[in-house]
Amino acid sequence: MKNEKCMKEFLDNNFLLQNGTAEHLYHEHAARMPIIDYHCHLSPAMIAENRNFSNLTQAWLAGDHYKWRAMRTNGVNERFITGEATDREKFEKWAETVPSTLGNPLYHWTHLELQRYFNIHTLLSPQTAGTIFEKTAEMLQHEDYRPVSLLNRMQVQVVCTTDDPVDDLAHHQKIRRLGIPVRIVPAWRPDKVLNTGDPKTFNTYLDLLSSVTGVVIDSYNHLLEALQKRHDYFHEQGCRLSDHGLENFYAENYLTRDIQLIFNKLRAGSELIPAEADKYRSAMLFDLAVMDHEKSWVQQFHIGARRNNNTRMFRKLGADSGFDSIDDKPLASTMGQFLDRLETEHKLTKTILYNLNPGHNEVMSTMIGNFQDGSVPGRMQWGSAWWFLDQKDGMEKQLRALANHGLLARFVGMLTDSRSILSFSRHEYFRRILCNMIGRDAENGEMPDDRELLGRMVEDICYNNAKNYFEF
Question: Within 13 Å, how many C-alpha atoms sit on residue 139's CB side?
């Protein structure tokens, strides 16, 4: 009983809402809006197959490198994280870690998810782990705990997955055939044609792209031809947005003949020197952006991760295993040059920029204003606080900088960027933070005490802006 009482006091109906205006804005406006999750890493196969999860470890811990990092920091052996331990043992180790995540958004997210999906009002700890594991395992076997039902439970209308150009999108096709009520949209993620660091891996990928398209890729132009064919196919399958995960923007000057020579060297299996790699990436990133513009897609750029820092663990587990961090490379110059090159050629489509380094907040929030053109509201967007920044402090700083330098009212709002079907309570987390910030400003006299005006702004940020921007 004491544990449940603590939970209710800690995570009550007005969690993160610190005044009456914030409470009104959240409960009467934000909470009522459906969810458009325009960037995540959910598996379309999982949604198409719509099978029950065996237990909470499978639904919650598998692939979640946020939790893996916390467990390692808490002294948990890798056997209980990505190793051969049983699902129950892994869950128990996560439960041992949770009390130590106080102050980390994982503590909030963990308990929001237990509440919203399972109506469990108990703090997760070693003492409660067994009961919670058993109760959720039983619940997860029910029809209304399959993936599609879980999406419906959270009022999710649209999910944009992350898909490689060689993907056949068969699962997306199956989802449409089954008439699943949630719209699952593919998003084009062509990062592998930009990753030139390992010529063998690069060429293996190009061979796969060649086999999928029927194009013999023996020149840079043939590579563009193959990519164009897949871009056209993605468009036919409902794709309307791209996404790029980059260390930085690339905007070197180059000549067409230079790129062909560089490509020939890379295709022959030789390593590029940094200047050559930057020229190739500059050309490829520009050409990919032109493809997006020609189809009026939205392009997204996630910038600033230093990935795979731990070589030993990368060799053991591969990418996206919890060994990435914030990078500190300069950003403004190359970003401005890249966007300006597109704008000069009248090839700049609707664009969302995301930074991982909080030191770039003002760089991003002011850069987007350079390329607004009055064609659509918020043509250039600064995306929501991402990855290491999608916590209360990071979200508030992003929202405040956007309000200071742009139009917060035109912001397209939150996304999960998650691999877990149980992560959609992050939209609630964001909405509560948003409403609290606006409510605080209103009660401080910094915004008018006009609940209709403020409520409309909240509803737009939570849902309407994204619906209109992506034309969903």
Answer: 17
Cβ(431)–Cβ(26) below 8 Å: yes
Alpha-carbon span 70 to 67, nearest angstrom:
5
Q: Name the token pair of 168.
A: 């056949």
Domains of the chain: 52-145 (1.10.2020.10), 157-470 (3.20.20.140)
Residue 164, exposed/middle/buried by CB under 10 A (0-12, 13-18, 19+)?
A: middle
Is the four-CA dihedral 430, 41, 94, 55 of positive or negative sign?
Answer: positive
Q: Which residue has the tokens 């792209």?
A: 209
In order of 104, 224, 338, the CA distances from 342 in angstroms are: 39, 17, 7
Alpha-carbon distance of 461 to 410, in angstroms, equals: 7
The amino acid sitting at 458 is V
What would the pLDDT profile of 390-423 be if each residue is shown by its tens digit?
Answer: 999 999 999 999 999 999 999 999 999 999 999 9
d(CA 52, CA 60): 13
Q: How are strands ordered across the β-sheet holding 156-160?
A: 35-37, 156-160, 183-185
Type of residue at 263 = F
Neighbouring-strand partners of residue 325 = 306
With CA atoms as reference, report the closest residue to 287 among 164, 376, 364, 194. Answer: 194
Q: For residues 175 and 181, what is the distance between their CA atoms, to the nearest angstrom?
A: 9
Residue 158 pairs with which residues in a beta bridge? Answer: 36, 183
CB-CB contact of 392 with 362 (8 Å): no
Rounded Cα distance between 136 and 56, Å, is: 6
pLDDT digit string (tens) for 44-62?
Answer: 999 999 999 999 999 999 9
